[in-house]
Protein backbone atom coordinates (compact mmCIF):
# COMPACT_ATOMS: atom_id res chain seq x y z
CA UNK A 1 0.00 0.00 0.00
CA UNK A 2 1.34 3.42 -0.98
CA UNK A 3 2.22 5.76 1.85
CA UNK A 4 3.06 9.45 2.12
CA UNK A 5 6.78 9.89 2.80
CA UNK A 6 8.56 13.15 3.60
CA UNK A 7 12.35 13.32 3.24
CA UNK A 8 13.93 16.53 4.49
CA UNK A 9 16.87 17.70 2.43
CA UNK A 10 15.90 15.20 -0.24
CA UNK A 11 17.07 17.05 -3.32
CA UNK A 12 20.61 15.65 -3.50
CA UNK A 13 23.05 13.04 -2.19
CA UNK A 14 21.81 10.56 0.39
CA UNK A 15 18.46 12.33 0.73
CA UNK A 16 17.73 12.06 -2.98
CA UNK A 17 18.70 8.37 -3.02
CA UNK A 18 16.30 7.76 -0.11
CA UNK A 19 13.49 9.67 -1.79
CA UNK A 20 14.05 7.79 -5.05
CA UNK A 21 13.96 4.41 -3.27
CA UNK A 22 10.55 5.16 -1.76
CA UNK A 23 9.21 6.53 -5.05
CA UNK A 24 10.34 3.40 -6.90
CA UNK A 25 8.31 1.22 -4.52
CA UNK A 26 5.22 3.29 -5.29
CA UNK A 27 5.02 5.64 -2.31
CA UNK A 28 3.95 9.27 -2.56
CA UNK A 29 7.19 11.09 -1.82
CA UNK A 30 7.73 14.71 -0.88
CA UNK A 31 11.11 16.31 -0.29
CA UNK A 32 12.05 19.58 1.36
CA UNK A 33 14.55 21.87 -0.31
CA UNK A 34 15.72 25.45 -0.14
CA UNK A 35 15.29 26.42 -3.77
CA UNK A 36 17.00 23.61 -5.68
CA UNK A 37 15.53 21.77 -8.65
CA UNK A 38 13.28 18.81 -7.84
CA UNK A 39 12.97 15.64 -9.98
CA UNK A 40 9.56 15.42 -11.61
CA UNK A 41 8.67 12.15 -9.89
CA UNK A 42 8.97 13.80 -6.44
CA UNK A 43 6.85 16.49 -4.81
CA UNK A 44 9.05 19.37 -3.74
CA UNK A 45 8.22 21.78 -0.95
CA UNK A 46 10.43 24.68 -0.02
CA UNK A 47 11.36 24.62 3.66
CA UNK A 48 14.03 25.86 6.04
CA UNK A 49 14.04 23.42 8.97
CA UNK A 50 15.43 26.11 11.28
CA UNK A 51 12.08 27.95 10.98
CA UNK A 52 9.15 26.38 12.86
CA UNK A 53 6.59 28.28 10.79
CA UNK A 54 8.20 27.03 7.58
CA UNK A 55 8.13 23.45 8.88
CA UNK A 56 4.44 23.77 9.77
CA UNK A 57 3.67 25.21 6.33
CA UNK A 58 5.61 22.47 4.54
CA UNK A 59 3.76 19.72 6.39
CA UNK A 60 0.42 21.40 5.72
CA UNK A 61 1.18 21.57 2.01
CA UNK A 62 2.26 17.93 1.86
CA UNK A 63 -0.83 16.84 3.81
CA UNK A 64 -3.07 18.76 1.42
CA UNK A 65 -1.40 17.46 -1.73
CA UNK A 66 -0.36 13.91 -0.80
CA UNK A 67 -2.00 13.01 2.52
CA UNK A 68 -0.87 12.61 6.11
CA UNK A 69 2.85 11.95 6.47
CA UNK A 70 3.28 8.34 7.55
CA UNK A 71 7.06 8.12 7.12
CA UNK A 72 9.38 10.96 8.11
CA UNK A 73 13.05 10.78 7.14
CA UNK A 74 14.91 13.58 8.91
CA UNK A 75 17.93 13.97 6.66
CA UNK A 76 18.48 17.73 6.26
CA UNK A 77 21.85 18.80 7.58
CA UNK A 78 24.86 21.06 7.16
CA UNK A 79 28.53 21.07 8.13
CA UNK A 80 30.78 23.95 9.16
CA UNK A 81 34.08 22.42 10.22
CA UNK A 82 36.96 23.95 12.12
CA UNK A 83 39.00 23.23 15.22
CA UNK A 84 37.44 23.93 18.61
CA UNK A 85 39.81 26.83 19.30
CA UNK A 86 38.65 28.55 16.10
CA UNK A 87 34.96 27.71 16.24
CA UNK A 88 32.65 30.57 17.13
CA UNK A 89 29.50 30.01 19.13
CA UNK A 90 27.46 30.99 16.07
CA UNK A 91 29.13 28.28 13.95
CA UNK A 92 28.44 25.72 16.67
CA UNK A 93 24.80 26.61 17.28
CA UNK A 94 23.97 27.06 13.58
CA UNK A 95 24.87 23.45 12.85
CA UNK A 96 22.92 22.17 15.86
CA UNK A 97 19.91 24.29 14.92
CA UNK A 98 19.77 22.70 11.48
CA UNK A 99 20.84 19.13 12.15
CA UNK A 100 19.35 18.46 15.59
CA UNK A 101 16.71 21.08 16.39
CA UNK A 102 15.55 20.99 12.77
CA UNK A 103 14.93 17.25 13.06
CA UNK A 104 13.10 17.86 16.36
CA UNK A 105 10.86 20.49 14.70
CA UNK A 106 9.91 18.03 11.98
CA UNK A 107 9.32 15.19 14.44
CA UNK A 108 7.16 17.43 16.63
CA UNK A 109 5.02 18.36 13.61
CA UNK A 110 4.76 14.78 12.35
CA UNK A 111 3.99 12.98 15.61
CA UNK A 112 0.41 14.18 16.23
CA UNK A 113 -1.14 12.69 13.08
CA UNK A 114 0.97 9.55 13.46
CA UNK A 115 -0.25 9.00 17.04
CA UNK A 116 -3.86 9.68 16.09
CA UNK A 117 -3.59 7.23 13.19
CA UNK A 118 -1.67 4.72 15.35
CA UNK A 119 0.85 4.34 12.55
CA UNK A 120 4.13 6.04 11.79
CA UNK A 121 7.83 5.66 11.13
CA UNK A 122 10.47 8.25 11.96
CA UNK A 123 14.00 7.69 10.71
CA UNK A 124 16.81 10.07 11.63
CA UNK A 125 19.94 10.23 9.50
CA UNK A 126 22.88 10.54 11.89
CA UNK A 127 26.53 9.75 11.14
CA UNK A 128 29.35 7.52 12.31
CA UNK A 129 30.94 10.78 13.46
CA UNK A 130 28.23 11.10 16.09
CA UNK A 131 29.47 7.85 17.64
CA UNK A 132 33.14 7.91 16.71
CA UNK A 133 33.99 11.60 17.02
CA UNK A 134 36.23 13.59 14.73
CA UNK A 135 38.66 16.46 15.18
CA UNK A 136 37.28 19.68 13.76
CA UNK A 137 33.68 18.48 13.88
CA UNK A 138 32.55 19.22 17.43
CA UNK A 139 29.40 20.92 16.15
CA UNK A 140 28.51 18.28 13.58
CA UNK A 141 29.34 15.33 15.85
CA UNK A 142 27.32 16.79 18.72
CA UNK A 143 24.33 17.33 16.45
CA UNK A 144 24.47 13.80 15.07
CA UNK A 145 24.95 12.23 18.51
CA UNK A 146 21.96 14.22 19.73
CA UNK A 147 19.74 12.58 17.13
CA UNK A 148 20.21 9.28 18.94
CA UNK A 149 18.87 10.64 22.22
CA UNK A 150 16.04 12.33 20.33
CA UNK A 151 15.00 9.16 18.51
CA UNK A 152 15.20 6.95 21.59
CA UNK A 153 13.13 9.37 23.65
CA UNK A 154 10.49 9.51 20.91
CA UNK A 155 10.54 5.71 20.71
CA UNK A 156 9.70 5.48 24.41
CA UNK A 157 7.04 8.20 24.25
CA UNK A 158 4.98 6.91 21.34
CA UNK A 159 5.85 3.25 20.92
CA UNK A 160 2.52 2.22 22.42
CA UNK A 161 0.83 4.11 19.56
CA UNK A 162 2.63 1.99 16.95
CA UNK A 163 5.01 4.78 16.00
CA UNK A 164 8.66 3.79 15.69
CA UNK A 165 11.75 6.00 15.77
CA UNK A 166 15.14 4.77 14.58
CA UNK A 167 18.52 6.10 13.55
CA UNK A 168 20.68 5.28 10.54
CA UNK A 169 24.34 6.24 10.95
CA UNK A 170 26.20 6.32 7.62
CA UNK A 171 29.96 6.45 7.39
CA UNK A 172 31.74 7.91 4.37
CA UNK A 173 29.42 7.90 1.38
CA UNK A 174 30.21 8.64 -2.25
CA UNK A 175 28.69 12.10 -2.67
CA UNK A 176 29.78 15.47 -4.07
CA UNK A 177 31.37 16.27 -0.71
CA UNK A 178 33.56 13.17 -0.50
CA UNK A 179 34.44 13.28 -4.19
CA UNK A 180 36.10 16.65 -3.56
CA UNK A 181 38.37 15.34 -0.81
CA UNK A 182 42.13 15.64 -1.54
CA UNK A 183 43.39 12.30 -2.82
CA UNK A 184 45.59 11.60 0.21
CA UNK A 185 42.73 12.15 2.64
CA UNK A 186 40.34 9.98 0.65
CA UNK A 187 42.88 7.17 0.61
CA UNK A 188 43.51 7.48 4.36
CA UNK A 189 39.79 7.35 5.13
CA UNK A 190 39.33 4.28 2.92
CA UNK A 191 42.25 2.53 4.61
CA UNK A 192 40.48 2.95 7.98
CA UNK A 193 37.32 1.25 6.72
CA UNK A 194 37.35 -2.56 7.06
CA UNK A 195 35.43 -2.98 3.80
CA UNK A 196 37.96 -0.72 2.08
CA UNK A 197 35.55 1.56 0.22
CA UNK A 198 32.99 4.32 0.66
CA UNK A 199 29.29 3.47 0.63
CA UNK A 200 27.01 4.28 -2.25
CA UNK A 201 23.97 6.46 -1.42
CA UNK A 202 21.71 3.61 -2.49
CA UNK A 203 23.16 1.41 0.26
CA UNK A 204 22.05 3.91 2.89
CA UNK A 205 18.69 4.29 1.16
CA UNK A 206 18.11 0.55 1.25
CA UNK A 207 18.47 0.44 5.03
CA UNK A 208 16.14 3.43 5.46
CA UNK A 209 13.53 1.86 3.20
CA UNK A 210 13.76 -1.41 5.15
CA UNK A 211 13.30 0.38 8.48
CA UNK A 212 10.14 1.95 7.12
CA UNK A 213 8.78 -1.36 5.86
CA UNK A 214 6.74 -4.14 7.46
CA UNK A 215 9.76 -6.34 8.23
CA UNK A 216 11.03 -3.71 10.69
CA UNK A 217 7.76 -3.16 12.51
CA UNK A 218 9.19 -4.43 15.82
CA UNK A 219 12.34 -2.31 15.68
CA UNK A 220 12.43 1.02 17.49
CA UNK A 221 15.11 3.01 19.28
CA UNK A 222 17.79 1.31 17.20
CA UNK A 223 20.96 2.79 15.74
CA UNK A 224 21.97 1.03 12.54
CA UNK A 225 25.43 1.82 11.15
CA UNK A 226 26.03 1.82 7.41
CA UNK A 227 29.74 2.53 7.62
CA UNK A 228 31.66 -0.45 6.30
CA UNK A 229 32.72 -1.33 9.85
CA UNK A 230 34.45 1.99 10.54
CA UNK A 231 32.70 2.64 13.84
CA UNK A 232 32.21 -0.89 15.12
CA UNK A 233 32.11 -1.09 18.88
CA UNK A 234 30.89 2.49 19.28
From TrEMBL:
Gene3D superfamilies: NAD(P)-binding Rossmann-like Domain. InterPro entries: KR_dom, NAD(P)-bd_dom_sf, Sc_DH/Rdtase_CS, SDR_fam. Pfam families: adh_short_C2 (PF13561). The keyword Oxidoreductase applies. One of its GO terms (biological process) is fatty acid elongation. Residues 3-176 form the Ketoreductase domain. SUPFAM superfamilies: NAD(P)-binding Rossmann-fold domains. One of its GO terms (molecular function) is oxidoreductase activity, acting on the CH-OH group of donors, NAD or NADP as acceptor. Belongs to the short-chain dehydrogenases/reductases (SDR) family. PANTHER family: 3-OXOACYL-[ACYL-CARRIER-PROTEIN] REDUCTASE, CHLOROPLASTIC, SHORT-CHAIN DEHYDROGENASES/REDUCTASES FAMILY MEMBER. This is 3-oxoacyl-[acyl-carrier-protein] reductase.
Amino acid sequence: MARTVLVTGGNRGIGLAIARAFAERGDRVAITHRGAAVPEYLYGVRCDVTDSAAVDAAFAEVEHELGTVEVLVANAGITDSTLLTRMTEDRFTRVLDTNLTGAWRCARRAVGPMVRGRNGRMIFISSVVGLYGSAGLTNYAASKAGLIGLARSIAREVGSRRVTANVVAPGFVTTDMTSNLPQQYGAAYRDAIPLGRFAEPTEVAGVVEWLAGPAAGYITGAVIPVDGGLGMGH
